[in-house]
């Protein structure tokens, strides 16, 4: 099972998230749940670099079964807004996957 944890700061914005595990929906290379969750997560990370112009703190496992992202301190309000839009879009996309494939992906919040 893929486990996703979102952590929010005092203002309610997503400050970090982690994904761990494997969906095991199908065999490696055909696992649509894993592919979907990975594509959404890596798309969000790439968008943080490209659209928010920040370098998130990234911790990635060697076997592809772990990804953790933390947002560094940001002062600029427009940058904060871009980060929030990107991470809330990530959350919504993963929740959509969870609605249809809840036995393979679980999202929690801290």
Automatic annotation (TrEMBL):
Alphabetical list of InterPro entries matching this protein: Peptidase_Prp, Peptidase_Prp_sf
Top-level taxon of the source organism: Bacteria
Family: Belongs to the Prp family.
One GO BP annotation of this record: proteolysis
Swiss-Prot/TrEMBL keywords: Hydrolase, Protease, Ribosome biogenesis, Thiol protease
Name listed for the protein in its UniProt record: Ribosomal processing cysteine protease Prp
Native source organism of the sequence: Chryseomicrobium palamuruense
GO MF terms, alphabetically ordered: peptidase activity
Stored Gene3D superfamilies: Cysteine protease Prp
Xref: CDD domains: Prp-like
Pfam family, one: Peptidase_Prp
